[in-house]
Design goal:
284 residues; alpha+beta; extended
């Protein structure tokens, strides 16, 4: 088992449950390095002062906040220590809410919470209480000096902690213009609904794969053998103009009539997020 990223406890009322934090997701895409095209040697990137045009050593670097264009205020290590919150080593549960009340835009990275030695019984007790109530624990946790909002949920026998964004991090939807439904015609809506219903299925993450990653690995393996990779050509769907929207819907319905087996499985890589109530089955 991989080394714990964090060790602490869940603060649940007056009960403290010792736990360890482990990653619940992994980046499976191949990693690349920048090489010099002539001799295939790795390239080292240097930190260069824009004014002097000379490399700067790590010990000569400071952190600055640009409060105006080209004007900075320097923050010292002491400033960051002053701002840092006390490392309480606790997942502090603030409240429990209904999963459906949480907008998915708030969710970020998912982690598994494992019981530390001696905390198994209390861990199982809290897990089953959360499972039976069907609620999500809204918590706070301090990681690397920064405080994070987090959701505590149950997936199978595991408790999953998903870091969340704060409200001020979400872009206000009112900054953008979206079309109203006043121009939507009833026949079009009925046909679109039928198409949606024909494509309705149970959520099964194993049906979807990262096709981009698969293509990259095929190319890499082919190059290792001195061959050329043969990939399936991807055809971009055309935008449906207003005049032929109904015809496009009819064609879509005809294509979906074959049922689930004939559907094209399109890869849709998702950000790491554990089961969010509405998607309980998803935990990588």
């Amino acid at each position: 088992m991989a080394r714990a990223l964090w060790k602490g406890s869940i603060a649940f009322g007056l009960v403290n449950i010792p736990v360890e934090l482990h990653t619940a997701v992994r980046d499976s895409r191949p990693r690349f390095r920048m090489l010099h095209a002539d001799d295939k040697s790795p390239v080292r990137f240097e930190r260069v002062c824009q004014r002097e045009g000379k490399p700067v050593a790590w010990e000569e670097l400071v952190k600055g906040y640009e409060y105006e264009k080209g004007r900075f205020i320097v923050l010292t290590k002491e400033d960051f220590k002053t701002a840092a919150l006390e490392k309480t080593r606790t997942v502090d549960i603030r409240s429990f809410v209904k999963p459906a009340d949480i907008d998915d835009r708030f969710f970020e990275s998912a982690y598994y919470l494992l019981p530390a030695k001696g905390g198994e019984r209390a861990y199982a007790l809290l897990r089953e209480a959360i499972r039976e109530t069907g609620l999500v624990g809204i918590s706070t946790i301090v990681l690397r000096d920064a405080q994070h909002l987090a959701a505590l949920e149950v997936v199978g026998d595991a408790m999953v902690l998903t870091l969340m964004r704060y409200a001020e991090e979400l872009v206000d939807i009112r900054e953008y213009h979206f079309p109203t439904a006043k121009d939507v015609r009833k026949p079009e809506l009925q046909m679109a609904r039928t198409l949606v219903e024909n494509l309705a299925d149970k959520w099964d993450p194993s049906q979807f794969t990262d096709e981009y990653r698969e293509n990259l690995m095929k190319i890499i393996k082919a190059k290792l053998k001195g061959k050329e990779a043969h990939l399936v050509e991807h055809v971009e769907p055309q935008n449906a103009e207003v005049v032929d929207l109904m015809e496009r819907l009819r064609q879509s319905l005809a294509g979906a009539a074959g049922g689930t087996g004939s559907r094209k499985k399109t890869a849709r890589p998702r950000k790491a997020a554990a089961a969010r109530g509405r998607r309980r089955a998803h935990a990588a």
